[in-house]
Predict the structure.
Amino acid sequence: MQPAQPLAPARDPTPQPPGTAPQTDAVKTPEVGGPTELVLEAKPVILLRGQSTWDDGFDTLMDSFQKLANEAKRLKLGTVGRPQAAFTATDDFGFRFEAMLALDSEPSASPAGLARDFAIGKSPVGKALKFTHAGAYDDIDTTYEAITGYLDEKGLKAKNLFIEEYMNDPKTSEDAALEMNIYVLVE
């Protein structure tokens, strides 16, 4: 399926509108909140670039966050906040991303011994809308459909950058306890 917006992560070829999925103990429609308008400011981050298929996306992102935490600990870099993934490109088969952990201070130089796949950089900046997703990662398509609907309804144009911020640590993609902020940079 082609994403509704250029970078809106989407995996289900036949998504259902919010509230149309059967409500049982096994299936729960995620809660979507927002938007809140804000301006994202640059923060120093340790980042890891990667790519994944849609089917492996959750596991790939969680693995990337763990690698970032391990590298930051190894280098004795202090981190603050929650892990984030900025989606930099998507297509029918998968996505490219930058996994990030914010640092408590900006290093004066790239830390000695920084592993080859990692980098020190800045988080994305700009005018954004913050939406929330509460529910399983497997159900996130419904949230992105609601976001796309909102942008269309308000005549807003996304800047081809969506950021997911994981507010807790889900065990699996089916973990209904997941809480996430989704930042959409807008023009």
